[in-house]
Specification:
The chain is α/β, with parallel strands linked by helices. It has helices at residues 2-22, 50-58, 71-80, 84-87, 117-123, 196-209, 238-242, 252-265, 290-324, 354-358, 377-385, 397-400, 427-435, 458-462, 520-537, and strands at 26-32, 60-61, 65-66, 127-133, 151-155, 181-183, 186-187, 221-226, 330-336, 404-408, 422-423, 443-444, 447-448, 474-479, 482-487, 490-494, 501-504. It has a single domain (24-464, 471-537), classed as 3-Layer(aba) Sandwich (Alkaline Phosphatase, subunit A). 31% of the residues lie in helices and 13% in strands. The chain has a 9-stranded mixed sheet with strand order 2-10-9-1-8-4-5-6-7, sandwiched between helices. Strand 12 and strand 13 (447-448) form a beta hairpin. It starts with a helix and ends in a 12-residue tail after the last helix.
């Protein structure tokens, strides 16, 4: 009897432990919009970001993480696990050229024949939540609520006034200059004290705190928090702006050198790396007039305040997860959707943003308020992308190497940074793998869908010596006529001027030395590989370049 009692006691102890071991992880994916590579403290920045820094340093900083050069193509890859041309975002909906109109892969919304990560996880027993920017379709059939999210509060378009002054629940979402918000597919009215980062975090916290739906049980969650900060227009609460008064008076050239030095201290950048020379149409900081410097520094103060406020709201979400007891069972992935934005309202962005600028009050004292409309320009953007070449909109490293990290349950803390190539398309198969959901299936929700082409990091998370991509694996890309093909440490790049350039990123991560003449055979082979990729995914080069910051 004593032996039997001991056996029963042992089983009672083991059973809960086994159940705990089998408990599937929650997932929190956080996206920042147009955040620069070195804006966070953990990546070399001076902006106050303690919450994100703490998460980044507790997990793995992904110094080789890549996205598409702009937002909606990246988001299509994030949620579908495949190339943006296959997902329907061969270009942004706002930028479709006449020769691309109506062509497969250029629908301008997430195609029905790709399954979203939310649809796959929902079918696998997860609760799926979204709060923030969608930018993957404007109709009811394209709404996040129709694409696998149980609960959603979504800005349908790609940008908006951060204080909500352009919201109109009754307008056609396709109307230019209008911001459309939907909650679970239905028109939503914003509160009077709306500020984007605050409200997106609040709604996600609300969703996380809701009791399980009837008959659904206590399911793990997939939460997608898609901030619109720090995307223009640069707007922030005045108390956050005041925190950075005078911080950027020395200018963007000095900031760039400070950030490069800090990246070297943090091990993000080798001492021998040559950074790419910035391309500033307006010249160096010293070439600006005193008034131009004053206004430009103010813009950067507002930008920093937006990043600061974003971090505060990440802290609120993390605190809510901690209070609920779910934080210790949550995998967190943070990323920016592309490189820093170099658009300038006075030059490169004047035509694109003409409608918004027409009624804006950009006087110094009003900058950052709801009635102002500002960007921060190429100088500050290239301080953020350094040592890389160029910015958002280009297939260069500056346009596609984005700040990212993974942290949380099952993610080991690693000293230094991970430098191997990884793709935003890898996130979907990684989370599915960690959830125990079949990422290879092509039947989801009763329909046949395209296969996932990204690769899981699950094995690499357990063993850093296990590569995600090998030296012979090729990865193609294109947007706005800017093209790239990467194989191992070799990269072929055309920034949209029709010229192919060849770089060895292991030796030259700044893309400063074109090796086309030194290695013509390799260049030719990669050009052929890109052409095969383009045929496979259906690339249609635009008849005119629609966007160039």
């Amino acid at each position: 009897m004593k032996r039997l009692a001991s056996l029963i006691l042992a089983l009672l102890v083991i059973a809960p432990a086994a159940q705990a071991k089998e408990k599937r992880p929650n997932f929190l994916v956080i996206v920042a919009d147009d955040l620069g590579y070195s804006d966070l403290g953990a990546f070399g920045g001076e902006i106050r970001t303690p919450n994100l820094d703490r998460l980044a340093l507790a997990g793995i900083r992904l110094a080789g993480f890549h996205t598409a050069p702009t937002c909606s193509p990246t988001r299509s890859m994030l949620l579908s696990g495949t190339d943006n041309h296959l997902a329907g975002l061969g270009t942004m909906a706002e930028m479709i050229r006449p020769n691309q109109q109506g062509q497969p892969g250029y629908e301008g919304y997430l195609r029905a024949d790709v399954a979203t990560l939310a649809e796959r996880l929902s079918a696998g027993g997860y609760r799926t939540l979204l709060s923030g920017k969608w930018h993957l379709g404007l109709t009811a059939a394209q709404d996040p609520h129709a694409r696998g999210f149980d609960r959603s509060f979504a800005l349908l378009q790609g940008g908006h006034n951060h204080f909500g002054s352009d919201a109109d629940p009754d307008a056609d979402p396709a109307t230019r200059g209008v911001a459309t918000y939907r909650e679970d597919g239905k028109p939503a009215v914003l509160p009077k004290d709306f500020y984007s980062s605050d409200f997106f975090a609040t709604r996600l916290i609300d969703f996380l705190g809701e009791p399980p739906a009837a008959g659904k049980g206590d399911r793990p969650f997939f939460a997608y928090l898609a901030f619109t900060a720090p995307h223009w227009p640069l707007q922030a609460p005045p108390e956050d702006i005041a925190r950075y008064k005078g911080r950027y008076d020395a200018g963007f050239d000095v900031l760039r050198e400070q950030r490069l030095a800090r990246q070297r201290e943090l091990g993000l950048l080798g001492a021998d790396v040559v950074p790419h020379t910035p391309r500033n149409r307006d010249g160096s900081w010293d070439s600006l007039t005193a008034e131009q410097q004053r206004l430009s520094a103010r813009n950067m103060e507002i930008y920093a305040a937006m990043v600061d406020r974003l971090d505060q709201n990440v802290g609120r979400v993390i605190a809510a997860l901690s209070a609920s007891g779910e934080l210790d069972n949550t995998v967190i992935i943070f990323l920016a959707d592309n490189g820093a934005e170099a658009l300038d309202v006075e030059t490169t962005g004047a035509e694109m943003l003409a409608g918004a600028l027409k009624g804006a009050d950009n006087d110094f004292a009003n900058r950052g308020a709801a009635s102002s409309y500002l960007t921060y320009g190429a100088g500050w953007a290239q301080a953020a992308t350094a040592p890389s070449w160029l910015t958002k909109g280009y297939q260069s490293e500056g346009g596609t190497r984005a700040v990212a990290f993974i942290s949380g349950v099952g993610v080991p803390r690693r000293e230094g940074v991970a430098t191997a190539y990884q793709s935003v398309a890898d996130i979907a198969p990684t989370l599915l793998d960690l959830a125990g959901v079949d990422a290879a299936t092509t039947r989801v929700g009763g329909r046949t869908v395209r296969p996932i082409t990204g690769r899981s990091w699950a094995r690499w998370l357990r063993d850093p010596s296990a590569p995600v991509y090998g030296p012979d694996d090729g990865i193609g890309a294109e947007l706005f006529g800017s093209r790239a093909y990467r194989q191992g440490e070799w990269k072929l790049t055309d920034i949209g001027d029709g010229t192919w350039r060849l770089f060895n990123l292991a030796q030259d991560p700044g893309e400063t030395r074109d090796l086309s003449l030194a290695d013509p055979d390799r260049k030719a082979a990669l050009v052929s590989a890109w052409e095969a990729y383009a045929a496979r995914v259906g690339v249609i080069l635009p008849d005119k370049i629609p966007y160039r910051p």
